[in-house]
Write a structure and sequence with these properties.
The protein is α/β, with parallel strands linked by helices and 281 residues long. The chain has helices at residues 3-15, 18-25, 29-43, 59-90, 99-112, 125-134, 195-203, 215-222, 268-280; strands spanning 48-51, 54-57, 91-96, 117-122, 139-142, 151-165, 186-190, 208-212, 228-232, 245-248, 255-263.
């Protein structure tokens, strides 16, 4: 019994006649009849009542159709599961503490291995290290160089934090400022900024935050909001909105040096991309 024969049986029930099923399957009616005859011989039962030129599914045929559809459904699910497994095997998994270094890693991947893809999640630093150590992550992005003897590590990028102000804000004319200068200010802020959110929460504990989780909405409001916003000097994050003053934060905590880490012994694309980035840096 072949899957093709089960598909033919299913088509006959769906289309209503042998000739209509043959047209749907793009085969001749005699070829379909011979195939169904072989299926009946293999099953040891006739599946159709034949009255002259009329052919109708009998009780055994209807039961066979039900089982054929179950088998065909299982076969489709098996193929889908195998396709998903293959997709996951081709996808590189990244845990990152912040969005900008992930985009930097993605740009390196596109340059070096354009057919590969990344899937990512934003995690805290200990979770990133655990994921790389246990193999659930291919790459980890940390705000420091890991000292684990299990890892290889290299600098990925540096990023510094600034604040944008409406032009009439009292701090808009400053060349630099400290976190202490921002006490009591209200900020429009994106929720998914990972590592940087912990930095600003710790450095400016008495600030007020209006949180948005939609990057497009945030970008639109950031042009006209009377509140402060944060931005970084990462070139692919986009510049300051027009009409806003940008003032860098001078505190050490506002400057991050992100590192890429992989497990020692990593091979193929993981090792190749890491080595290529390490050489470029």
């Amino acid at each position: 019994m072949e899957l093709e024969q089960l598909e033919q049986l299913d088509a006959i029930e769906r289309e209503g006649t042998m000739s209509a099923a043959a047209r749907a399957l793009h085969i001749s009616q005699p070829a379909l009849s011979r195939s169904i005859g072989r299926l009946e011989a293999e099953l040891g039962q006739e599946l159709f009542d034949r009255r002259g030129r009329r052919v109708e599914l009998n009780e055994a045929g209807n039961l066979a159709v039900e089982w054929a559809r179950r088998i065909l459904g299982d076969e489709r699910q098996m193929r889908d599961a195998l396709d998903e497994l293959a997709r996951k095997a081709r996808t590189l998994r990244v845990g990152t503490v912040a969005p900008a270094p992930l985009w930097r890693l993605t740009s390196f991947l596109v340059d070096r291995f354009p057919t590969e893809t990344l899937t990512s999640e934003t995690l805290d630093a200990p979770s990133v290290e655990r994921g790389v150590a246990n193999g659930s992550l291919n790459f980890g992005i940390l705000p420091y160089e890991s000292g684990s003897p299990m890892f290889r590590s290299c600098e990925l990028m540096r990023e510094s934090l600034s604040v944008t102000f409406p032009p009439n804000h009292p701090l808009a004319s400053r060349r630099t400022l400290t976190a202490a200068d921002l006490a009591g200010e209200t900020f429009l802020i994106l929720t998914n900024i990972g590592f940087w959110r912990g930095v600003v929460d710790a450095a400016i504990p008495d600030a007020r935050f209006i949180e948005l989780d939609d990057a497009q909405v945030f970008a639109q409001l950031a042009r006209s909001t009377p509140y402060c916003t944060f931005m970084t000097d990462a070139p692919f994050m986009g510049g300051a909105p027009a009409g806003r003053a940008v003032v860098p934060i001078s505190d050490d905590a506002a400057h991050a040096n992100f590192h890429l880490c992989v497990r020692k012994g990593a091979t193929d694309v993981v090792a190749g991309l890491f080595d290529w980035i390490d050489e470029r840096r």
